[in-house]
Amino acid sequence: EVQLVESGGGLVQVGGSLRLSCEASGFTFSDYVIGWFRQAPGKEREGVSCISAHDGTTYYADSVKGRFTISVDNAKNTVYLQMNSLKPEDTAVYYCAAVTDDPRYGSNWYLSSDVYDDWGQGTQVTVSS
Fold first, then answer.
1. Among 31, 50, 51, 127, which residue carries the largest CB count within 10 Å?
2. Mode of pairing for the β-strands spanning 123-128 and 10-13
C-alpha cells in the first residue's frame, strides 16, 4: 500500500522559513517522481515543485523559484521542501504526491496534479504578515 506522510507545516512570519518532509512507503521509491502541491482556500491545487528519486531532476513553479528548494534522501525514502522567504500568498495546505518516473515527460507534466496517482493527507502552512 502506497503511503505518503507530510510533516513540517506550521505558522511562520513573512520572510521566515519552513522545511516540509514527505516520507514514502509501499512502493519502489527510486522509480518515482515525488511532487509538492498546494491548495489555498477557494483556489485550485497548484504544482510547487517535484523531484525524480531516480536521477534527482527537479522542477519548480515560477512563483517559488529562488525561494524553495526540493531535495531527496533515497536512504530514508523522504523528499524535503525547504521554503525560504515565505510570503502570505504561500499560505495553503501542502500535499506531496507520487507518480511513476517517465523520462518522456518534463515540467509541464510533472507539475500537473492530474498525473499523480497517490497523495498524502496534507500539512497546513500559514504565513502571517
1. 50
2. parallel
| 18 vs 11: CA distance, rounded Å | 9
pLDDT per position as a tens digit, 5-40: 999 999 999 999 999 999 999 999 999 999 999 999
Phi, psi torsion values for 65, nearest 5 degrees: -60, 135
CA distances (Å), 113 to each of 17, 88, 99, 118, in order? 25, 22, 10, 10
In terms of DSSP H, where are the helices of the chain? 107-110
Residues, the chain, total? 129
Residue 88's pLDDT band (boundaries 50, 70, 90)? very high
Among 85, 97, 93, smallest CA distance to 40 is for: 93
Angle (nearest 5°) at CA 26 between 25 and 32:
75
